[in-house]
Write a structure and sequence with these properties.
Shape: globular
Largest sheet: 7 strands, mixed
Bound molecules: pyridoxal-5'-phosphate
Strand order of the largest sheet: 2-8-7-6-5-3-4
Helix content: 40-55%
Distance between the termini: 49 Å
CATH superfamily of the largest domain: Type I PLP-dependent aspartate aminotransferase-like (Major domain)
Number of helices: 14
Number of strands: 15
Strand content: 15-25%
Order of helices and strands: HHEHHEHEHEHEHEHEEHHHEEEEHEEEH
Radius of gyration: 21 Å
Amino acid sequence: MLSTKAMSLTPSPTMAIDSKAKEMKSQGIDVIGFGAGEPDFDTPVHIREAAIKAINEGHTRYTPASGTQELKEAICAKFKADNGLEYNPAQIVVSNGAKHSLFNALAAVLNRGDEVIIPVPYWVSHPELVKLNDGIPVTVETSDKNCLKLSVDDLEKHRTSKTKALILNSPTNPTGQVYSEEELKAIAAFCSKHNIFIIADEIYEKLVYDDSRHISTASFGGRIKELSIVVNGVSKSYAMTGWRIGYTASSPEIARVMGAVQSHAASNPNSIAQKAALAALEGDQECIRVMHLAFDQRRKYMYERVKAIPCLRALEPKGTFYLFVNITETISKTFQGQRINDSDDFARCLLENRNVALVPGTGFGSANYVRLSFATSQENIIEGLNRIEAFIADLE
Ligand SMILES: *Cc1c(COP(=O)(O)O)cnc(C)c1O
């Protein structure tokens, strides 16, 4: 018999539609994809060059398991400059991507049966990572009125004596929302009072728009800083998803435990990728501004277009590269005789009939929503939205 725990994991639900879209593409069908969960830009040249240099200079051996001293120092400098956070290198653990950092964080704090609060909609891996570490994910519905952001009332209703941690992802995948300072302060005060760890997934921090600001709960200081495990990485900010470098900042004790876990499970993250991440953090930040500008222009266009399509209600993205769209008004309608019962049907029907791939909300815990990524070219966005508009017009 195989492991009950491992078998209880849900295979990534965003994959089914994705593999169908890929299959259609390989048959020569012109599919427009809104499914991307990563920047469509190439890794900036100076970062690639740093990696090539690292190979040629022989940085090809094991490094300390939790990352090189120089990279940890650069990460500390980043936290200070960007987030107003003071950490020393002993509080940093560098991992194989932010997902791995999240895994380490949960491994460090959870005992069997501990509960972890996760706001709905959630990033697909958050509940599964909790299960992998013997915790119980407590998914908490958020309100439309609060733009699907978690409130202290929601927390209060679901807190038990077993609540050990909260996973808070702001800017949020899939909703594109950003928590305000006031909202974060209230959540932080609640967590301090009840001794709940905040695992702060801040991977989209550089992608905030208009007057939204990214704030790290750890920056409130005192007890909440001790309870916070800040998770970040270079994947989304620097278009480096394939390089696999993420990192955490935490109390020295948590960092030591996470470092021990990682040293046995994975040893160090790739030595070349650590050199590349160092170049990303220490190099010219202009590349971030260029990508941000492109995302922001697409975001504005996409939001205005979707807002004007009947039956669709889009949440205005304040961060990330996702638009989260409520499709409730299409439920129970039919497309050429096929009835739409939920976002899975919506996505399948749209892909099969109009060759547009998007991600159904069911995988994020929200059956009445779909997620559209704007990490794709403006031409694709225009064409894809034309097709969606025509699809909606054909619903009966
Ligand atoms: C992409 C993503 C991550 C993982 O980033 P990696 O560094 O590629 O592991 C973590 N959290 C959220 C919400 C993400 O969207």
